[in-house]
Specification:
By secondary structure, the protein is mainly alpha-helical. The chain has one domain: Amino acid/polyamine transporter I, CATH 1.20.1740. It is globular and about 65 Å long. It has a two-stranded antiparallel ribbon with strand order 1-2. The protein contains 18 helices and 2 strands. The chain starts with a strand and ends with a helix. The longest helix has 35 residues, at 315-349. It binds tryptophan. Tryptophan binds next to α1, α2, α10 and α14.
Length: 456
């Protein structure tokens, strides 16, 4: 996916460059589309009462997510290094301070923490491939599907095993160089996932409860909205778009000079948001049709979609393909989560890519046991936000990513001079002005307002 051919850039990345604009869009889409869309969005929306949460989430995606993503890409392309070194370099170049490197540092840490639990949930999807193939869901009732899930996650050894397998797969690809083969995988995966979501949507429409699902998702009841759920919506916007932690910045470092950052961002945001909304539309009708509760938590998708597959003609096939695709989607995201840490270690400590990846992978694997045990042995050990899993999730999605995003837009909007950003975004009049207003005022003020009100 990366080519080393000269393309006339002012500054070159050590790791090579994307072969085309499409390759970049596919890579960022591959990182954005993942468990965040299909597993996390529905359960967080369910826990936060639906409609009003979804509306706030969509507003956050457009008014905050979009300018943050553009800022990350333009910073990455200008620095052409790992996020830590890029922030340090540009901090100096723009006449500010090299201390901006800590934004990159926080991103490296956030990626490690997120992947520590992400890999555990990805392990569940691997297990669900096996359950699908063996026909565990054929004709199953809600009770059977629910028991299947509960008995799986309560066996910590099985969960640890699938977490280990998933981390092994992630380390394998990243160690060999992120890029080869992945482009093809994403090119196939995202459309295939869309098609399957449409199949599920068809089932949801035929369930007789589609209207109720739609109403739950799109009828805002603002009395249910607390600052806590506004923060959850903001955090979800950051999480699902892979922003706020330098991952998109790391990918931007390999982006050719002539590619439109605005166009690429719009494409990624559109694909990512469509898949999340489709997932919600497929899942909530099933929740109501089967008397389940929307606020059920992290098991929601595993307790609902197998029901639909179990009733469908060709269900074993569709179910297997679905969980294979979801595992793939998680895989391409895991790679992005490791990229800031790996790129930093390679550049800073002069390690080989393989050494850096194995080291980071081992650390993440170990940390992952906190989340492995959160669903069984330590399920009742709760503090602050809940289990260890809940805390790692809250700390990363609701604190570290918004804070990282805040610092990134402040850097792009206020620290970098107008000419530097205009240069990267292509000073295209209206669009550039719109970005600048969002990056300088709307996004920082919005993030601060939510963080302050939700955390105090
Ligand atoms: N966006 C991913 C998802 O929705 C998760 C994620 C968050 C991510 N931050 C990231 C992926 C950074 C890659 C890089 O599943």
């Amino acid at each position: 996916m990366l080519s080393n051919q000269a393309d006339g850039d002012k500054r070159r990345s050590l790791h090579g460059h994307w072969s085309s604009r499409m390759a970049f869009i596919l890579a960022v889409t591959g990182s954005a589309v993942g468990l965040g869309n299909i597993w996390k969005f529905p359960y967080i929306a369910g826990q936060n009462g639906g409609g009003a949460f979804v509306l706030v989430y969509l507003v956050c995606v457009v008014l905050i997510g979009m300018p943050v993503m553009m800022s990350e890409i333009l910073i990455g392309r200008r620095g052409r290094r790992n996020p830590v070194a890029t922030m340090k370099l540009l901090g100096q170049e723009e006449g500010s301070s090299e201390r901006w490197k800590w934004v990159g540092g926080m991103g490296v840490l956030a990626g490690i923490l997120i992947l520590s639990y992400y890999s555990v949930i990805a392990g569940w999807t691997l297990a669900y491939i096996v359950k699908s193939v063996t026909g565990a869901f054929a004709g199953a009732s809600a009770g059977v599907v629910g028991d299947e899930f509960d008995s799986f996650v309560s066996d910590w050894r099985l969960v640890a095993l699938t977490h280990t397998i998933f981390m092994g797969l992630a380390v394998f690809v990243v160690a060999r160089g992120v890029e080869r083969g992945l482009e093809q995988a994403v090119r196939f995966m995202v459309p295939a996932l869309l098609v399957l979501m449409l199949v599920l949507l068809g089932y949801a429409i035929s369930s007789g409860y589609f209207g109720q699902g739609v109403a739950f998702m799109f009828t805002p009841d603002f009395s249910k909205l607390t600052w806590g759920s506004v923060l959850a919506a903001l955090g979800q916007a950051f999480f699902t778009l892979s922003i706020g932690m330098g991952a998109v910045m790391a990918y931007g470092a390999y982006l050719p000079e002539e590619t439109s950052i605005t166009g690429a961002s719009a494409a990624v945001v559109t694909a990512d948001t469509s898949i999340a909304i489709l997932a919600g539309l497929a899942i909530f009708p099933l929740v109501f049709a089967n008397g389940l509760t929307p606020g059920d938590g992290p098991g929601l998708v595993f307790n609902t979609l197998p029901l639909a597959f179990g009733q469908m003609a060709g269900g074993v096939f569709f179910s297997t393909v679905f969980f294979v695709l979801l595992s793939f989607a998680a895989w391409t995201s895991a790679i992005g989560l490791m990229e800031p840490a790996v790129a930093w270690i390679v550049e800073h400590f002069h390690k080989t890519r393989a050494q850096a990846t194995v080291g980071v992978g081992l650390l993440i694997w170990l940390l992952g046991f906190g989340s492995v045990l959160s669903f069984n042995v330590l399920a009742d050990t709760k503090f602050l936000a809940g289990t260890i899993f809940d805390n790692v999730d809250y700390l990363t999605s609701n604190i570290m990513l918004p804070l990282g995003g805040l610092l990134i837009v402040i850097f792009a909007g206020w620290v970098m001079c107008r000419n530097s950003t205009a240069d990267e975004l292509g000073n295209s009049g209206g669009l550039f002005k719109a970005w600048r207003i969002l990056a300088r005022y709307v996004a920082p003020i919005g993030i601060l307002l939510v963080l302050i009100n939700a955390v105090r």
